[in-house]
Amino acid sequence: MKFQKPFILVFLFFFKITLVQSQGVYRAEREKIHDIIHTKLKVDFNFKEKTLNGEEWVTLKPHFYDTDRLILDAKAMIIHSVMLNDKKLSYNYDNYKLIIDLQRMYKRDEKFTVYIKYTAQPEKVKQKGSAAITSAKGLYFINPTGLDKNKPTQIWTQGETEASSCWFPTIDAPNQKTSQEIYITVPEKFVTLSNGKLEKQTKNSNGTRTDYWNFTQKHAPYLFFMGVGEYEVVKDSYKNIPVNYYVEKKYAPFAKQIFGNTPEMLAFFSKVTGIEYPWNKYAQIIGRDYVSGAMENTTAVIHGEQAYQMPGQLIDENTHENTIAHEAFHHWFGNLVTAESWSNLTVNESFANYSEYLWLAHKYGKNEAEAHLLEDREAYKNGQNFDKHLVRFNYDSREDMFDAVSYNKGGSILHMLKNYLGSDAFFEGLNKYLSQNKYRTAEVHQLRLAFEEVSGKDLNWFFNQWYFNSGHPKLNISYDYNKLRKTVTINIIQDQANEFKFPLAIDIFEGSKKTRHQVFVSGKDASFTFPFIKHPNLIQINSDGVLLCDIIENKILSDYIHQLKYAENYAHKKEALLEVSKRQDDKKAFRAIANAMNDDFYKIRILALENINLINKYSKKAVINKIKQIAMQDTKTLVQAAAIETLGKLTDLELKPAFEKGLQSKSYAVLGKSLVAMYYVDKQLAIQKSKTLPLEVKKIIATPLTRIYLEENDEDELNFIASNVMSGMFLSQNKKIQSLYKKAYDKIAKSNNFNAIQNLSNDIVAKGIQYKQYSFDKVGVNLLRQMVQMQKKENHTNKHQNIEVIKTAMAKLLE
Length: 815
What we know:
Elements: H1 5-15, E1 25-26, E2 34-46, E3 51-62, E4 67-73, E5 77-84, E6 87-88, E7 91-93, E8 97-106, E9 112-120, E10 139-142, E11 154-157, E12 178-187, E13 191-194, E14 197-203, E15 208-219, E16 226-229, E17 232-238, E18 241-247, H2 255-259, H3 262-273, E19 282-287, E20 294-295, E21 300-304, H4 311-314, H5 321-329, E22 337-339, H6 346-364, H7 366-382, E23 394-395, H8 405-421, H9 423-437, E24 440-442, H10 444-455, H11 460-466, E25 474-482, E26 487-494, E27 502-510, E28 513-521, E29 525-531, E30 538-541, E31 550-552, H12 557-566, H13 570-580, H14 587-596, H15 602-611, H16 621-633, H17 637-648, H18 656-663, H19 668-679, H20 683-691, H21 695-700, H22 702-712, H23 718-722, H24 725-730, H25 735-750, H26 754-770, H27 776-792, H28 799-814
Parallel strand pairs: 2-12, 18-19, 19-21, 22-24, 25-31
Antiparallel strand pairs: 1-23, 2-3, 3-9, 4-8, 5-6, 5-9, 7-8, 10-11, 11-16, 12-15, 13-16, 14-15, 17-18, 20-21, 25-26, 26-29, 27-28, 27-30
Helix pairs in contact: 3-5, 5-6, 6-7, 6-8, 7-8, 8-9, 9-10, 12-13, 12-14, 13-15, 14-15, 15-17, 16-17, 17-19, 18-19, 19-20, 19-22, 22-25, 26-27, 26-28, 27-28
């Protein structure tokens, strides 16, 4: 499962939600009374009622003890009949648990098959979702009656954590493993997708078709999947294994640009784990209104519609590529070997998180991987996560486990473990863990034992502090120089409550010459002494960037300038650049930022462009010409876009040719920045260009267009702006963008534009319902109330009509 981090973080920031760290309830692994052996389903759908008609044959056996009753999870269903060997069984059903009287005692190795006829009613499911998975009704009908002409009719399922039992009775726990068959009957126009192989398709006399999907291997019930819709299937392959992409027809030409690295990912992950991709196909489907980022259903991954991207976006970057890698790696960690309980979610999600680093380093180089690692670490640190253990047996809800500790911190811990063991031992340890537990479940202790068996090292200390404890080192650094002996003593004091032990890399720079020292910190107060020939220009702590920590030290401007020029790790270069940029009145500092625009790594070039100070531009002509050259010629379109944005702030007519070229770019990032830049030197040209753009392009570059339309006071475009206000205010992590859309909200709320007010009100309602678990329905009500008050202060001809629309929207959120 890949959740949408930006949304969660922005909500915490915007609404100041306080997450209380609760001790929770002890959550044991689900007791195994029965083992599921095989699940066979026959299903069809009532689109109008949003229900599923199902027949199930579930084969089980007692796990150890003799038993004469069976308990299955079955949420919000109508149970029509239960049978065993063609005999009706008595049962009790409370809308959550189906308790079946088996009529006799069954022994440990005695298999039996129960038949259940039922109707699933996902709209009546009452369990709640989480920050990662925003709904938990298991089965989702999207535009089932086709009333919305702008949205296709689709059906898809989402089983994690325990929502598969919303559409078929099962033992909905991660410590169960079952093979499966599914017969899916749908109108002929629809394509279906499920786990395993499509063995057969049968046309029925009533205009429907039954697809038979067969999955012979074992996996957990939460990984069951069905997808239905009018999809085009774009075919690819890895060796002799089908790798297919299920997309709406409009996006079929771009499917391989979006997903095309999947075969290489499967090859790379097969290589590093030493285990060849273990399943018979790999399919990916995109679902409308999906409740998370993506989900790793075995051989049938579903992605949210944010995966859809146009060539003008993909030329800048494939923003979904990390998610694609994440879900692929789950097919080893999570699907092949599954966490035996949600408390041990780390053996699923931490590995999937770390696979993103591994893939980026393999495909694009270490800088790209380190930039991603830094972003993940900052997300973990910015949340209220310091007191959470990675392995948690006490929590309020299993959904609480899907957080930046299980994902981001867990991935960072694996990075530290790989560094400590060495890559060869680390990957051999992964192979042993997977080989010993394949098609079964496991917990963190089995992972530790596998690494110990391979490396010969005791790892209790590592797992105790990182997996079974909380926090991370907070290091206070000071230096003592002995000029006579030419030595420097580095003092490291840990300021956090827990004491950590860890290896640490320290670089000492004498001019451009770097000497790296590897030390091991084993106490809360440690000192290390090193020689030097000439007085160091810089001492870089955690110089390889491996250790997850906070560092407090006193550095001066010259330290940061040296660090920006010579540090190797992206986090250190970024830190230095941001510090140096604060002091650009100093010529050396300005020159250091200007030089960073030539950095080999494009993200440093972007940072330099975003932070360079061009006040007194006439004395900085050479640098401006350099930025102009970057805008026209840089190999990365995102760098070109950053350069154009920087030039645009100068409002210099001489720069118009650079903006004109940008308006012709295939890159939407470059196009958007060029429109804004051009607006300040040639308004008419910029507006004329914006009006000729296709609507789908306008939606993608909505933020720069909103800026132009607001400044231009363009009433005709308020309706377009209204469609993007809520996403801009609450889904962006950029404060400038949030501020822009707040301005847009205020303008629309005060306006007499009925259509814009209606559009904004409807969007507030839609977001309020979609993100109700974040209390966004309450936020939406407040926003609508503010709109009513703003309208009352105006003397609009449509005032009463506008207020009525807003109040109608408010009533929907208050239902």
